[in-house]
Specification:
Layout lengths: L2 H17 L4 H15 L7 H8 L4 H9 L6 H15 L5 E10 L9 E5 L4 E15 L2 E9 L3 H4 L2 H7 L10 H14 L6 E4 L1 H4 L2 H9 L3 E6 L4 E4 L4 E2 L11 E2 L4 E2 H6 L7 E7 L5 E13 L15 E8 L5 E6 L7 H24 L2 H14 L5
Parallel strand pairs: 1-5, 5-6
Antiparallel strand pairs: 1-3, 2-3, 3-4, 6-14, 7-10, 7-12, 8-9, 11-12, 12-13, 13-14
Length: about 375
């Protein structure tokens, strides 16, 4: 495809998003800035980017990026409408994840020493809560919300220096994620299952909030996650003095111990999909019904049985084990449960393979063709 043909498709793709902005200058500079981000070139800062797409106009482009008053609502409305038309369905997935941006300095808003997924360790970085809509292996990013650590949120001087609005306060990542889930549902974006890693899966409040929205969820957890057998009962012992604590009929166990009790026969090989090259994606899985230890705390500090769920263990080819909790119903097949769990990784793999295997020009052609052919800009 010629560059002219690509630019025409690109302009068609952008048209409904640009129409959402009423500012003429913004509609002019946005396509140039986006082209600069997509075109080859390692450095995406303003100066080298301007040299590629708007030589001699660095200041105008810098003003567009850093000084314009940004209100994402109008553009989000268009994006979410198009995304739902393409991928939205009751069996679609909403993937919650962290996106980390490594930084060397301390001036970028929200930067802190925290876990950085891009580096796989604690590092100086910004962290954003990302929300992606996915159906089959096709992912569409819908939202990126900056996580502002407490040290930043509670420091008036740092806030003023970088212009953090007064209404931006400290919120845990799971609260940011739930707010985005609710915003998307209110906007009419369709999905039925929420996926996230153990950074979110360990949080009782996050799981309860998803359940209160009537959503299915499949979330990673640590091997130490506390659970009871599903058939656990609560009994009240005779009062001892002024204390009377309920007692579970079974002891609480770590997720790893509960799976280990199933033995090797508890594992089955499951293939959740086949790659475009015909390679089956499979691993061994075991599961059992449990009552999560997320109920009320007793006087002795432990938590009582609460939400009933599937505890799932994935055993990979290298022997590594991963653990998950999901609120799929009791009659859900193992393959269905695994398919939901692995939908998150399938989407990540699709994104990774796209970046690795496609050149920038081919990516531009395929990207624009895929969306335009499905009338995303119609």
């Amino acid at each position: 495809m010629s560059s002219t043909g690509w630019e025409q498709r690109f302009d068609r793709f952008l048209e409904p998003f640009l129409a959402a902005w009423r500012t003429k200058k913004r509609r002019y500079w946005a396509p140039l800035y986006l082209r600069g981000l997509l075109l080859p070139g390692e450095r995406k800062s303003i100066e080298p980017l301007a040299e590629r797409v708007a030589p001699g106009h660095e200041q105008e482009l810098r003003h567009f990026v850093s000084e314009s008053a940004w209100d994402a609502a109008a553009v989000e409305e268009v994006l979410w409408e198009k995304a739902d038309a393409l991928l939205g369905a009751d069996d679609a997935f909403l993937i919650i994840d962290d996106t980390a941006l490594p930084k060397k300095g301390s001036e970028s808003v929200g930067v802190a020493h925290q876990y950085c997924g891009a580096l796989g360790k604690q590092a100086n970085c910004q962290c954003l809560v990302s929300v992606t809509l996915a159906n089959d292996i096709v992912p569409l990013p819908l939202s990126l919300q900056l996580y502002v650590p407490m040290d930043w949120a509670a420091d008036p001087e740092r806030r003023a220096k970088v212009g953090i609005p007064d209404n931006v306060v400290f919120r845990e990542k799971w609260r940011i994620a739930i707010d985005e889930v609710r915003r998307l549902r209110k906007a009419g974006v369709r999905f039925g299952t929420v996926l996230a890693d153990a950074g979110y899966g360990h949080c009782t409040e996050f799981r309860e909030a998803l359940s209160s929205e009537g959503l299915l969820w499949a979330l990673g957890v640590q091997s130490t996650q506390q659970v009871y057998p599903a058939n656990v009962k609560i009994k009240m012992p005779a009062r001892i003095g002024n204390q009377k604590h309920p007692i579970p009929s079974h002891p609480v166990d770590a997720a790893s111990e509960m799976i280990q009790a199933l033995g090797d026969k508890g594992f089955k090989k499951v293939t959740w999909r086949t790659t475009t090259t015909g390679r089956p994606m499979s691993a061994r899985f075991a599961r059992c019904r449990v009552a999560i230890a997320d109920g009320k705390r007793t006087g002795v500090g432990c938590r009582l049985p609460g939400t009933e769920a599937w505890l799932v263990c994935e055993e990979r080819a290298n022997g590594e084990k991963k653990y998950y909790l999901t609120n799929h119903p009791t009659d859900a097949s193992l393959r269905k449960v695994v398919g939901a769990i692995k939908a998150r990784w399938s989407c990540e793999e699709a994104q990774t393979q796209t970046v690795k295997s496609w050149s920038a020009s081919r990516w531009s052609d395929e990207f624009s063709s895929w969306f335009v052919d499905r009338d995303i800009a119609a």
